[in-house]
Design brief:
Layout: H1 44-56, E1 78-82, E2 85-88, E3 93-96, H2 111-121, H3 132-144, E4 150-154, H4 157-172, E5 176-180, H5 197-202, H6 212-215, E6 218-221, H7 226-235, E7 240-245, H8 259-271, E8 275-280, H9 291-296, E9 302-306, E10 316-320, H10 322-325, H11 344-357, H12 362-383, E11 389-393, E12 396-400, H13 409-412, H14 417-428, E13 432-433, E14 442-443, H15 450-466
Parallel strand pairs: 3-13, 5-6, 5-7, 7-8, 8-9
Antiparallel strand pairs: 1-2, 2-3, 4-10, 9-10, 11-12, 12-14
Length: 467
């Protein structure tokens, strides 16, 4: 069956600050001895383990982007992580800018978080019943995020988005939703339409097994283009339940919105009786303590969250206005549940992480370091004659091998993917771990030092001179 959707569909499915000196609270001095100029890593044990993994798990991985399909070669197999660094099973050491895909904002395996989790673990790993830790984390989230008056915890960002889409449809009594090309909201059927991230990385035209009926009510607009949203709303008068987006796109690389675009979406939602939803699974507590909605000063009706609020453990959440959230069972008729939701270990890790993030200067420091890295990489790239552009928001960043600026997924897709693959492998072989897809953002942590960043730029200089 040839599936047809409202937006030229699945062809693209897919996939500041104050510069105070870093203190001990933000970064540890480190002597990073990974490679000398010209020396590169070998991956004998990683190759052996991954070869076995491919016989045991589809593609040898538990999540597709980890397979390095778009960058060539096989993935390295991690043994341990600490602070800004990761070590693979061959004892190669990396400066890590993936940070377990965003949660490791303090740095990996923070001592205080680990100690708090250890103490909680002594009481049990899962209760399946209410516990005070849920209240504590909920109060912290509500206090931090402008749109959230009530919150429901889940076990992943995908779960949070599944609950969110059911909620906005229940509250508005409408079925259709607007999403944006290149924005990823988890792997639920309704969202696998021009979805960015791993599906773009793999170049899949669509996902088999997704019925046409599951995506028929999902309408796609172009990011940073209000006219495309207006056109859809005009064609579907009084039928759209919500406008849903990543307020900073991290699943098509790194795409920052025009503030006027977000403000325009807020007005369009209000004028059309639709809800505005920010998927802040990636940006929440990452670009600012109150998320992208604090960073840009635009407040949605509903927010999804994950990653950072679990401090490195599996977690997700969705929240919003009280009148909307009271639709969720058992307060209301919209059903959603989860055996491990509100897990005490995840709640503890989230609480301890947020305590550290809610300190003066944290996000200014994250953005300063992110900007230093991006400025250095872009300048080095241009020095060697490469088309390159980049950007930052708090502790989130990215760059493309294209002149830019990149404002939407179509422009991101024009980036030089072949060059990115070579760049990724050569950086990896020299001790810098970057996301293995040009359709993924990078993440800075409080543990990264200026020395780490300068070493990364120096390695990039060597690599870019050879590309």
């Amino acid at each position: 069956v040839k599936m047809k959707f409202a937006c030229g569909i699945i062809a693209c499915i897919a996939v500041g600050a104050s510069a105070f000196a870093p203190s001990k609270a933000f970064a540890r001095s480190s002597s990073l001895s990974s490679t000398t100029e010209g020396a590169t890593y070998t991956f004998t044990k990683s190759e052996e383990i991954f070869a076995e993994a491919k016989e045991l798990m589809p593609g040898g991985v538990s999540s597709p982007v980890r397979a390095f399909k778009s960058v060539g070669g096989n993935p390295v197999v991690f043994d341990r992580v600490k602070g800004a660094y990761a070590w693979d099973v061959d004892e190669n050491k990396y400066i890590d800018y993936v940070g377990t895909w965003g949660p490791a904002i303090l740095g990996h395996a923070d001592d205080d978080v680990l100690e708090a989790v250890r103490k909680t673990m002594e009481k049990g790993t899962s209760f399946g019943a209410p516990c005070p830790l849920e209240n504590e984390l909920a109060k912290a989230v509500i206090a931090a995020v402008p749109s959230v008056e009530m919150v429901r915890f889940t076990n992943s960002g995908t779960e949070a988005c599944m609950g969110m889409i059911r909620l906005v449809r229940a509250f508005t009594d409408r079925e259709k939703v607007i999403k944006f090309e290149g924005c990823y909201h988890g792997h639920a059927d309704s969202f696998l339409v021009q979805a960015g991230s791993g599906v773009a990385t793999l170049g899949l035209p669509d996902s088999p097994g997704v019925p046409a009926s599951a995506t028929a009510a999902t309408l796609c607009a172009e990011y940073n283009n209000l006219d495309s949203v207006k056109a859809i709303l005009d064609e579907n008068k009084d039928e759209v339940a919500a406008i849903i987006l990543e307020p900073v796109v991290g699943n098509s690389g790194f795409i920052k919105p025009d503030k006027a675009f977000l403000e325009g979406l807020r007005k369009l939602a209000d004028d059309n009786g639709a809800l505005l939803v920010f998927d802040e699974v990636m940006t929440g507590f990452r670009v600012a303590y109150g998320g992208a909605q604090e960073y840009f000063g635009v407040t949605p009706d509903v927010t999804t969250m994950g990653k950072v609020i679990g401090g490195g453990l599996p977690v997700g959440a969705y929240g919003g206005r009280r009148d909307i959230m009271e639709m969720v069972a058992p307060a209301g008729p919209m059903y959603q549940a989860g055996t491990l939701s509100g897990n005490p270990l995840a709640m503890t890790a989230g609480i301890e992480t947020m305590k550290k993030l809610n300190q003066p200067g944290v996000y200014e420091e994250l953005e300063r370091k992110s900007q230093k890295l991006v400025d250095g990489i872009v300048a080095t790239g241009k020095k060697h004659g490469h088309a390159i552009c980049g950007g930052t928001a708090g502790g989130m960043f990215g760059w493309y091998f294209t002149e830019g600026p990149v404002k939407n997924f179509a422009e991101a897709a024009k980036s030089d993917g072949e060059k990115f693959g070579k760049w990724h492998r050569m950086m990896l072989e020299r001790g810098v771990y970057l996301a293995p897809s040009m359709y993924e953002a990078g993440f800075m942590s409080l543990s990264h030092t200026d020395e780490d960043i300068e070493k990364t730029i120096a390695i990039a200089d060597e690599v870019l001179s050879q590309l």
